[in-house]
C-alpha cells in the first residue's frame, strides 16, 4: 500500500478503467483522478481534481495540488478524434484550421504540458512509468491508408514528444520510463462512429484493453522508454 498513481482523462473510457483498476489494487495508496469536470468516486483512496488539457494554467494548478506526493504511475488518457462540429478528415479538401488546432491542442500540446508539470512528481528511487495513450495511426511507416490528417499527425508528434521526454529523463531520472501506448480499438465515445468497421471480436471493452495495457506497463523496462508499445507488447515502428 505504498504506490501513488495519477490518471489524466479519468472520465474517459480507458482512463476510468485505470481508475477502477488502481482503486482495487492493494499496493496502491492514492489515486489522483483528473478530468475536465470533477467526478465522484465511492472508493476513498480516489481523489478527483479538475484539469483542462487545453489550458496550461489548469495543468500547472492540477500538478501543484498533489505536489507533496511522489507518483509511481501517471497515465495520460485524454484525446480527441471527432466532436459535434468535426470528424477526422477523409481527404485533403477537409483540412481545416480550427479542427486541426483543436486536435493538436488536445492530443499533442496538452499531453506535452502534462509532461512538463507532472514529470517532476515521478518517484526517483524506484521504477516509475508515465504512459501516454497514443495510437498506431501515428506511425508514419505504418500509414497505408492515409486520411485522418489531424489525428494521425497529432499522435505522430506526441510520439516524438514521448521520445524526447525519455532522452531527457535518462539524465534526470534514470528509473523513469516514458511510454506511448496503443490500446487496440476500444469501445468508447472516441471510437463510436467507427465501431461498425471493426471486425467481430476485435473491439475491446475498456477493461479488456486496460488489463492488457497494465501488463505492458508492468513488464516495461528502461529499454522500452521512448517507444510506442501496443496492447500485446509489440514495439510499433515510428
Ligand atoms: N478508443 C480507441 O479505439 C482508441 C484507439 C487508439 C487510441 N486511443 C487513444 O486512447 C485515449 C483514450 O481514448 P478513449 O477511447 O478512452 O476515449 P474517450 O472515452 O472519448 O475519452 C477521452 C478523454 O479525453 C478527455 N478530454 C478531451 N478533451 C479534453 C480537455 N480539453 N480537457 C480534459 N480532458 C479532455 C475526455 O474528457 P471529457 O469526459 O470531459 O470529454 C475523456 O476523458 C485517447 O488518447 C485516444 O486517442 C483510443
What does this structure look like?
The protein is α/β, with parallel strands linked by helices. The chain has a single domain (3-236), classed as Rossmann fold, CATH 3.40.50. 34% of the residues lie in helices and 19% in strands. The chain has five helices and ten strands; from the N terminus they run βαββαβαβαβββαββ. It has helices at 13-24, 56-65, 97-118, 149-172, 206-219, and strands spanning 3-8, 28-35, 46-50, 73-76, 128-133, 176-182, 185-186, 203-204, 228-230, 235-236. Strands 3-2-1-4-5-6-9-10 form an eight-stranded mixed beta sheet, sandwiched between helices. The protein has a two-stranded parallel ribbon with strand order 7-8.
Note the main attributes of this structure.
alpha/beta, Rossmann fold, 19% strand, globular, binds NADP nicotinamide-adenine-dinucleotide phosphate
Structure class: alpha/beta
Number of domains: 1
Tally the beta strands: 10
Alpha-carbon Rg, integer? 17 Å
Quickly describe the structure.
With 238 residues, the protein is of the alpha/beta class. The protein is 34% helix and 19% strand. NADP nicotinamide-adenine-dinucleotide phosphate is lined by residues 9, 11-15, 35-37, 52-54, 77-80, 106, 133, 135, 183, 185-186, 188-191.
Amino acid at each position: 500500500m505504498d504506490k501513488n498513481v495519477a490518471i489524466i482523462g479519468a472520465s474517459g473510457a480507458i482512463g476510468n478503467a485505470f481508475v477502477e483498476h488502481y482503486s482495487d489494487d492493494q499496493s496502491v495508496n492514492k489515486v489522483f483522478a483528473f478530468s475536465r469536470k470533477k467526478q465522484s468516486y465511492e472508493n476513498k483512496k480516489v481523489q478527483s481534481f479538475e484539469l483542462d488539457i487545453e489550458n496550461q494554467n489548469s495543468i500547472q494548478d492540477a500538478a501543484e495540488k498533489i505536489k507533496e506526493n511522489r507518483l509511481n504511475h501517471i497515465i495520460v488518457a485524454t484525446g480527441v478524434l471527432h466532436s459535434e462540429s468535426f470528424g477526422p478528415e477523409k481527404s485533403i479538401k477537409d483540412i481545416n484550421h480550427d479542427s486541426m488546432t483543436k486536435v493538436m491542442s488536445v492530443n499533442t500540446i496538452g499531453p506535452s504540458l502534462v509532461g512538463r508539470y507532472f514529470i517532476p512528481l515521478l518517484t526517483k528511487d524506484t521504477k516509475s512509468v508515465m504512459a501516454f495513450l497514443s495510437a498506431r495511426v501515428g506511425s508514419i511507416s505504418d500509414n497505408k491508408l492515409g486520411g485522418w490528417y489531424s489525428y494521425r499527425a497529432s499522435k505522430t508528434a506526441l510520439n516524438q514528444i514521448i521520445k524526447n521526454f525519455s532522452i531527457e529523463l535518462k539524465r534526470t531520472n534514470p528509473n523513469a520510463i516514458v511510454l506511448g501506448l496503443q490500446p487496440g480499438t476500444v469501445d468508447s465515445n472516441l471510437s463510436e462512429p467507427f465501431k461498425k468497421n471493426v471486425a467481430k471480436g476485435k473491439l475491446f471493452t475498456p477493461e479488456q484493453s486496460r488489463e492488457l495495457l497494465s501488463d505492458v506497463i508492468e513488464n516495461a523496462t528502461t529499454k522500452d522508454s521512448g517507444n510506442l508499445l501496443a496492447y500485446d507488447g509489440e514495439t510499433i515502428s515510428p
